[in-house]
Amino acid sequence: MQQAQEDVEETVQSAQKEVNVQKEEFVNTIDEQLSAMEEEMDQIKQQIDEATGDRKSELQEKWEGLQDEKEQLENDLDELRAKADENWQDLKTNIDNQLESVKNSFDELKSDLDMDS
After folding, report:
1. Residue 7: is its pLDDT beyond 60?
2. DSSP at 27
3. pTM for this entry
4. How far apart are CA 38 and CA 18, in angstroms?
5. pLDDT at site 117
6. Are the beta carbons of 80 and 91 closer than 8 angstroms?
7. pLDDT level of residue 115 (50, 70, 90 thresholds)
């Protein structure tokens, strides 16, 4: 009986370690993708600032939308980091969807500015 209980505890600990690794890998992947976007965002902002008239207003609106989406994603990522490991999957799908939306907005803005994707 004692051995069976020890085996169960070992299995649970092993599963928890695996969940921790998966969560850490997921967070790192999202962080890397956001960092890659950050590198280009200064260039995008500079081009928006150099635009004029209606084009500048349109680009500025898209920029602000991108910033809002990115900020929400970063907030949810912070929440994910703080969540208990067994509950992190609750936010994973939402974060994946948000990242896809941020990428689409980012690529659309780059396209509007004739920047290479």
Report:
1. yes
2. H
3. 0.80
4. 30
5. 52
6. yes
7. confident
**116: DSSP letter:** -
DSSP-assigned letters across all residues of 35-102: HHHHHHHHHHHHHHHH--HHHHHHHHHHHHHHHHHHHHHHHHHHHHHHS-GGGTHHHHHHHHHHHHHH
How many Cβ atoms sit within 10 Å of the Cβ of residue 48?
19
**Distance of alpha carbon 7 from alpha carbon 24, whole angstroms:** 26
Q: From CA 66, how far away is CA 44, in angstroms rounded?
A: 11
Name the region of 116 (left: φ>0; alpha: ψ -120 to 50; beta: rest): beta
- At 84 the three-state DSSP class reads coil
